[in-house]
Structure formats: structure tokens, C-alpha cells
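user: can you give me the structure for this one chain? C-alpha cells are fine.
assistant: on it. calling the predictor now.
[tool input]
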Amino acid sequence: MSRSHFATHRQFLHGILKQADRYKRQVMLENANKEQINAVSEMVLNLLGGKIPVSRPVYKSLKKKTAKLRELGSRRTSLKKRKTILLNQLKSKQKGGSILWKGLTNCYNVCCGGRRR
């Protein structure tokens, strides 16, 4: 995904990744259009491809979710299915769903020139 494509959806990506209230995040994802979901999918592909540096604990936790992440990153997966995967990550917060959001936040910070933690 080119830097300009990230810039196009920067406000949406910033909103879903920095939103503290998971219910507001859920509403944003439910109302997201195809291009916005594709932007999230591209971030996941960059994360899986090793193009984004991630801390060891986050990487270790993400490794357990590799199958879902690959499904989320695949363009062959329907938009509805990708939205469902993202929404299920929100609902499974106690089961480690927040790990995905930490990884995507790192990806956003690197790709959009934000601060890295």
C-alpha cells in the first residue's frame, strides 16, 4: 500500500486504532466502506510480511492468530467476512483480541509517520 493510500484513510485508521471505547470502534468498523477495510487488510499484510517492526511479546501473541490474520489480509476473502473477523477481535478482548490492535497500532505508527512505542 502506498504512502498516499495510507494518507487517504489516515483519519479512519487513526480513529479505529486510537479509540479507547470498543463500542465506538465497533460502530466505526460496521460503517466502514470497502476501501477502509482494504486499508486495514493492507496493514495486516505488512505486519505478516515482516515489513513492520513489532516487539517480541506482541509478535509472539500475533503468531497464535496467524490463520485469522492471513484470512483478514487476503483479497480473496469477502468484505463481509473481513469485517466479521475485525468485529470478532473486538468482542474477544478478554481472550487476547487487543493484541491484534496493538500490532496494528505499531503498523500505523510506522507507516503514517506517527510515534513508535
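assistant: here you go. The helical segments are 3-8, 10-18, 22-30, 34-48, 56-63, 66-73, 79-91, 97-111. Residues 84 and 96 are 16 Å apart (CA to CA).
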